Amino acid sequence: MRLFHRSPESGIYLDRLTSTNSWQETRCAVVGSRVVRSDVADSFSAIVMFKGEYELRYTVGGREYSLWVDSGWADTSHQFVETKLESLPEYCAFDIRYNPRKPSQAIATRK
Hints:
The protein is mostly beta strands. The chain is built from 1 helix and 10 strands, in the order ββββββββαββ.
């Protein structure tokens, strides 16, 4: 399974491959959103795309952590994606699993 780690500069990045079966689960809240460029290219052309991401916040031992996840919205129009993210979901539709030894290491999967 892929392990994602939050970087303040770039959001989530791939850290290494590891098993997360022993990791703890916790609840999360959707606290923010952003639109990021996500180009699609093949051997014939490149398309400028934008995708929406949600910032998920979770708490471990009284300390807050967050990570960015794909919202499911993507389009060639930045404005379209931005409009879809204007209202944050009231319910966090993701499960968070975190490394008990290093809680900043976490993965999110859709419920």
